[in-house]
Amino acid sequence: MKGIKFIGTGSYLPEKTISNDDLSKIMDTNDEWIRQRTGIGQRRMAIEEGCVDLATKAAISALENAKLKPEDIDVLIVATCTPDNYCPSVACMVQEKLLAVNAVAFDISAACTGFIFALKTAESLLKSSEYKNALVIGSEVMTKLINFENRNTAVLFGDGAGAAVISKNDFENGIKDIYIKTDGSGAGLITMPALGSIKDANFEDKEFTYVSDNTRDIFMEGREVFKFATTIMVSMVKDILEKHNLDISDIKYVVPHQANIRIIDYAAKKLKVSSDVFYTNMEEYANTSAASIPIALHEMNAKGLLSKGDNIILLGFGGGLTFGSALITW
Ligand code: ACO
């Protein structure tokens, strides 16, 4: 039977590092508060690069790892909530830069769950058509959307991109299941108004003089999101284990969206498993939204932490609200 598996991973993190101490020079915050409440120690910041640049570099790294050429790619999906343009999509521009001439390319917007949504879409396209190889990328330049006067969210996010190549063949191991879901009733809990959105449509007089009110910011009801994230992480792990008749002890690693160490510790406690089962790197990169899971996956792959036959669970949750999980046998 044809299976679909990961044949390569990659990532790219911009060079510039911003420590918590750096942030404390421009806003009323400090390293101790940020570390204790979030587990974040620093983040990367794209200065002269955009979402497309980060995505392209992560894609090149994943293609090298998969030993494929750009023209081998049939499907190219970028998950992002910080695209450089409304049009063209990030994916179209990455296709052009890579010369992935045979790929159908498009973006997906599902906030921090974007990579899982993109993975599900890519897997479905491979399953349902003649397509063989898909390049799935999560790329974010969150710091370009941050309002550095809002300490509530400015300390949480960083920039980066991760990518994976999945392929259809006579594989026994691979993607066993992917689950995605949305709950629009929580849409107001995490918001990033689009520049030029209805909020900006601010015409002051009959001559239609346009007045911009610069809505660039990330808003979050932190405590509500905390409750949502912990609840949904625990239930998604339990559900996927039950569905596949597995126990948590059968899982080598859970690779969660890297939002906050306290969310992860809480979920581990509820699942009665050591926090070490949850792979984390938010101390170095902070929350890179849709990029966090593929960055973590590539880091694990590069460190040799993943062996053939290992069961891993990917766990995403984020604005929308969106959430999703994937069970993979490596
Ligand atoms: N530095 C210092 N003090 C701060 C900062 C900061 N950066 N931000 C807030 N504070 C202050 C507040 O003003 C408040 O002060 P007060 O008591 O004098 O009013 C105090 O710290 C506590 O603020 P809370 O917002 O209640 O802090 P809380 O303990 O809830 O922690 C946090 C905030 C870390 C955001 C928490 O709610 C959380 O982890 N939420 C989960 C959401 C998350 O991680 N989202 C990631 C992005 S969304 C996603 O990826 C799905």
Automatic annotation (TrEMBL):
Residues 106-184 form the Beta-ketoacyl-[acyl-carrier-protein] synthase III N-terminal domain. Residues 241-330 form the Beta-ketoacyl-[acyl-carrier-protein] synthase III C-terminal domain. It is found in: Cytoplasm. Signal peptide: none annotated. Catalyzes the condensation reaction of fatty acid synthesis by the addition to an acyl acceptor of two carbons from malonyl-ACP. Catalyzes the first condensation reaction which initiates fatty acid synthesis and may therefore play a role in governing the total rate of fatty acid production. Possesses both acetoacetyl-ACP synthase and acetyl transacylase activities. Its substrate specificity determines the biosynthesis of branched-chain and/or straight-chain of fatty acids. Belongs to the thiolase-like superfamily. FabH family. This is Beta-ketoacyl-[acyl-carrier-protein] synthase III. The lineage of its organism: Bacteria, Bacillati, Bacillota, Clostridia, Eubacteriales.
